[in-house]
Amino acid sequence: MKIYVTAIVKSKATHRTEVGAVLQNMVKQTRQEKACETYTLHQSIEDENTFVFYEIWENQEGLDLHNSQTYVKEFIALMEEKLENKPIILKTKLV
Questions:
Q1: How many CB atoms lie within 10 A of CB 1?
Q2: pTM of the entire structure?
Q3: Which fold has domain 3-92?
């Protein structure tokens, strides 16, 4: 079953450029993963500190493998210091 993910990431204003660069690297790396069907990064027009990922994964196993990658772990290491709060992750399915 395909997994659809929307992830909302809010950086601290002082770290927006650094967080954005890390997120863009994740896009570059993730799009090479076999189970990744779609992986796009958006930035809010109203609040430039807010980034939104839209992702489609072939299956849960592919998403699990993604979450174990080094570049995802590097992002997780930034969270406490560089983000306003913990990212909001919504896993969904088509209805």
A1: 8
A2: 0.93
A3: Alpha-Beta Plaits (3.30.70)
